[in-house]
Design brief:
The chain is mainly beta. Helix content is 8%, strand content 39%. The termini are far apart. 27% of the residues are buried.
């Protein structure tokens, strides 16, 4: 399902006065793997960011932000239909490989995965559940997250699975990180 989000961007004008650079309704676009709709919100290439006010979201490729930058996106996850996929099934493994390639993410150092969506990012991720419920899977555990919950995800192997029966909307802010397992 497509969704719309109002995005307000502030900045300074030539005189150093705070101004609204944009105030617009943004429509979700092509779905991300495992999601029905995705809306990129903002990206920076460096930290500290020079506050140019330039919108470069069209340059976002894959999931990981630049090492010294960030991504801000909102993703809607559809409800899963049926039981969890069997990761021993060759067709499921192939779909998982294709998803990881499209997302541009690592599958982590461990060979066994609980879900086709298991991946690692080169980032610290802040997630806010805007609407609905979703399960966050880690290697050996999982937690049910509900509307209003906040998750701080530090480059761990994880997946998002929506077993709630209803769509779930999640805001993600990914900040590039020099993760120790990448070295």
């Amino acid at each position: 399902m497509a969704f719309t989000v109002r995005r307000v961007v502030t900045g300074d004008n030539a005189q150093g006065k705070a101004v609204f650079l944009s105030d617009e309704l943004r429509q979700s676009n092509a779905p991300a793997p495992g999601a029905t709709a995705r809306l990129q919100q903002w990206m920076t290439e460096t930290t500290p960011e020079p506050f140019t006010g330039k919108d470069i979201t069209d340059r976002i490729k894959g999931t990981n932000p630049p090492l010294t930058g960030s991504h801000f996106r909102i993703i809607e996850f559809p409800p899963q239909t049926g039981p969890d996929p069997d990761m021993k099934d060759p067709a499921v493994k192939k779909r998982a490989e294709e998803m990881h390639k499209q997302m541009g993410v690592e599958v982590g150092p461990l060979g066994a995965h609980r879900s086709p969506g298991m991946h690692r990012t080169f980032s610290i991720d802040y997630a806010l559940i805007l609407k609905g419920e979703i399960d966050m899977l880690l290697d050996d555990s999982e937690v049910r997250c509900k509307t209003g919950d906040v998750i701080v995800q530090q480059g761990t192997n994880h997946a998002w699975v929506n077993r709630s029966g209803k769509p779930c909307l999640v805001a993600f802010i990914l900040i590039g990180a020099d993760v120790p397992w990448k070295k």
